[in-house]
Design brief:
The structure holds two protein chains of two kinds.
Chain A (H helix, E strand, L loop, with lengths): L3 E7 L6 H8 L4 H11 L3 E8 L4 E7 L2 H16 L3 H5 L3 E4 L1 H11 L11 H15 L5 H20 L2 H4 L3 H13 L6 E5 L3 H12 L4 E6 L2 H10 L3 E4 L3 H5 L4 E4 L10 H8 L7 E5 L16 E5 L3 H7 L1 H57 L4 H29 L5 H11 L6
Parallel strand pairs in A: 5-6, 5-8, 6-7, 8-9, 9-10
Antiparallel strand pairs in A: 1-3, 1-4, 2-3
Helix pairs in contact in A: 2-3, 5-7, 5-15, 6-7, 7-15, 9-10, 9-14, 15-16
Chain B lengths: L1 H25 L2 H29 L7 H23 L2 H19 L15 H35 L5 H5 L3 H33 L8 H23 L3 H26 L15
Helix pairs in contact in B: 1-2, 1-4, 2-3, 3-4, 3-5, 5-7, 5-9, 7-8, 8-9
Classes of the chains: A alpha/beta, B mainly alpha.
């Protein structure tokens, strides 16, 4: 039985935002992808992650090539993208390379903003969904838990997440380059998702005093506004708000543009040309890209923020080297564990055989032993079991130590014959 | 004496410029501090030079092209020192010092021509007219450079290309407000310069205004800056548009400062100021 770990995906580097939009646009992408994966014949365990910056499919498969083909088909189906179009933007990792990739993603080493903490939460959610759908198994469970462990180590042992936290951090840096300081600036949040909340926190920590929240459902806007003592407005009030605010953060799940060129053009005169900065962290984009061409108006979408992030790369490179080393260590540990899997069936049958002998012998002797008190019976059982366990303990640890060595198979063979584990 | 101070000022300013350029590239704070104090030293020598010249001539030393340029360079540095004190913006020096030194270098290539000056130039009104007008020019030089810096940074933000200028320049808001303040101060000084000039003319020539080319071009300059200030205050022009217009205004200013004096004649020209005659 062969174990193939396969990872197919795309990230902000391999795929443009236009393509990622297709896969990230529907809220139930993850659920349906997992459901489809479960029905695929070659895939034993599966995991599917879709965020606005990346799509990752991870599978434990019997047949590598078939599994790859079906994963690509799955993605092209979900995003309604032609396969030819999709393949050029995808990367494929197999075996330990796949493990390493997932560890790096979880540790936020592959993120647009290296060190941003959101990705780990997103992976945890995606993994929870996979468990709920019962498509994760022994290997995937172990892999994901090791990924979380690696991420935790990277965060605590390196300074990688201190330098840059997230996309909203990068956006705040940019806002400072335009406005110098954000004190007394007015901010409008459009869309009341988690992303909006995060940006709001960053902006408030920079001294922003006045904040307004607009959301499709006013209820959620009121809720979020309550958190930041902001004022909630409805979607229809966005246009008059534009006359007044300095920074607009959009993060809606809307399919079309929420802010159009005409809308912004109309407010410029009333604003007396004060600079207006749009931070569009939504995929698909919320602000019409042409708005950026207006004087004193700046639009940054999620891909543009990459540029800012690049600026801080140098400082973080040192920390990233450390983080990569941690990831390597964790990958090696996982690899070792994976290899013990080959020895596991033999060890399990060894234990089973010992247990069945213990049971049989106890049964046989029970008549000769006569009436024992419960306590005596228990002591006797513990004794026989520990004799069996102690006898097996050295051979088992020997086998575990041989895991990953080329000689493992011959030792396994000897063990099975020595203890007669296979029925002829 | 003047010769010594001129060269000392030039050497200090050249060193400061070199330092400011190194600072622009390397971004070491100590390089900035060295360059700044070198520039202050240059400014000090330059001031002594002007005082010496004033003392020996009995009039403001701008009657020859060489002296005029040297005085212009001094006023640019003076404006810089004021803005540096207010905004504490290190990168500003890397733009202003080269311009001031460049003007000083041109001045250094010209021969010393100042001879004795006529009594009509030994007037306190003329001194005020010239000093105020030149300080205005210095302010406008700052406006001009802030506009260039603004355009560089704006381009980088707009096009999302984060080159070395993005890192080194301050925020757009800061550059815009430097542009604004230097514009307002420059405009006030220019206006005062023109008023004192016409009062002086009334004293010497007997008429406030006589359509001398320099006067006409100064008026054109004044109107251009007035339009810019008006648009800024009333319509709310700012940013890129304001920056571009202030660059154009500065070009007009330079023309009326140099071009008119050299080519268009009139009683403001260096020829008629008696310099050539002194040869």
């Amino acid at each position: 039985m062969e174990i193939n770990i396969i990872n197919i995906g795309m990230n902000h580097e391999t795929a443009p935002v236009e393509l990622r939009e297709c896969l990230a646009s529907k809220p139930d992408t993850m659920v349906s992808a997992l459901a489809t994966m479960r029905d695929l014949p070659y895939i034993r365990e599966g995991f599917f992650l879709s965020t606005c910056n990346r799509v990752e499919a991870l599978a434990i498969a019997d047949d590598c090539d078939e599994a790859k083909k079906s994963l690509v088909a799955l993605m092209s189906g979900i995003g309604s993208i032609s396969k030819e179009n999709l393949i050029s933007s995808l990367y494929t990792h197999e075996g330990m390379a796949a493990v390493e990739h997932i560890f790096r993603v979880a540790s936020s080493l592959d993120s647009m903003v290296v060190g941003e903490p959101q990705i780990l939460g997103q992976i945890k959610d995606a993994y929870a969904e996979a468990s709920r759908q019962k498509i994760s198994g022994v290997i995937l469970n172990r892999l994901m838990h090791r990924a979380f462990h690696a991420a935790k180590r990277v965060r605590t042992e390196t300074g990688i997440s201190e330098a840059a936290v997230s996309i909203s951090y990068a956006a705040v840096e940019l806002a400072k380059k335009i406005f110098h300081e954000l004190v007394e600036k007015k901010v409008l949040l459009i869309g009341a998702g988690e992303m909006a909340e995060l940006s709001a926190r960053h902006l408030l920590s920079q001294g922003v005093r006045s904040m307004t929240v607009a959301n499709r459902t006013l209820e959620r806007a009121v809720q979020l506004a309550g958190l930041f003592s902001a004022s909630p407005v409805s979607f229809d009030e966005i246009t008059p708000q534009l006359n007044d605010v300095d920074i607009v953060v959009t993060s809606t799940a809307s399919q079309g543009y929420v802010i159009t060129l005409e809308q912004v053009k109309g407010c410029l005169r009333k604003r007396r040309n004060r600079p207006l900065f749009f931070i569009d962290i939504a995929v698909p984009r919320d602000v019409q890209p042409e708005v950026n061409q207006l004087d004193n108006v700046y639009v940054y979408d999620i891909d543009d923020l990459k540029g800012i992030i690049q600026l801080n790369m140098d400082q973080r490179r040192q920390e990233a080297v450390k983080a990569e080393r941690i990831v390597q260590e964790e990958v090696l540990k996982f690899e070792k564990w994976l290899k013990t899997l080959a020895a596991v069936p033999t060890i399990v049958s060894l234990r089973e055989k010992a247990e069945s002998i213990v049971q049989a012998e106890m049964k046989k002797s029970s008549s000769a032993l006569g009436n024992l008190t419960n306590h005596q019976r228990e002591t006797l059982e513990i004794m026989t079991r520990s004799i069996a366990e102690k006898l097996l303990s050295d051979p088992i640890s020997f086998l575990k130590k041989k895991a990953g060595r080329p000689t493992l198979n011959s030792y396994l063979d000897v063990t099975r014959r020595l203890f007669k584990l296979d029925k002829e | 004496m003047a010769f010594l101070w001129f060269n000392l000022a030039l050497v200090f300013e050249l060193l400061a410029t070199g330092g400011f350029i190194v600072y622009l590239v390397k971004q070491h704070k100590w390089v900035f501090s060295c360059s700044y104090w070198l520039l202050v030293a240059g400014f000090f020598c330059h001031t002594i030079l002007l005082v010496c010249q004033y003392h020996s001539l009995g009039a403001v030393p701008i009657l020859g092209f060489k002296s005029a340029l040297s005085f212009f360079s001094w006023s640019i540095i003076f404006a810089y020192l004021i803005f540096q004190a207010k905004f504490k913006l290190r990168v500003l020096g890397s733009f202003i010092a080269p311009l001031a030194t460049f003007v000083m270098l041109i001045s250094s290539t010209m021969p010393w021509l100042e001879g004795p000056v006529g009594p009509q130039f030994k007037s306190i009104l003329l001194t005020v007219h010239i000093v105020v007008a030149f300080m205005g020019n210095g302010m406008f030089a700052v406006t001009f450079l802030a506009a260039i810096m603004y355009l560089l940074l704006e381009r980088s933000i707009k096009q999302k290309k984060f080159g070395s200028f993005y890192d080194r320049l301050p925020s757009l808001a800061t550059l815009d407000s430097i542009n604004y303040y230097s514009l307002v101060y420059g405009f006030i000084l220019l206006t005062l310069g023109m008023i004192t000039g016409s009062i002086y003319a009334q004293h010497i020539i007997g008429t406030y205004w006589q359509w001398d080319p320099k006067e006409v071009w100064s008026l054109i300059t004044w109107i251009s800056y007035a339009v810019l200030i008006h648009e800024r205050l009333v319509v709310g022009w700012r940013g890129r548009k304001a920056a571009i217009i202030s660059i154009i205004c500065f070009c007009i200013l330079i023309f009326s400062f140099m071009g008119v004096s050299l080519w268009l004649g009139g009683y403001h020209s260096f020829d008629s100021l008696g310099v050539r005659k002194a040869l």
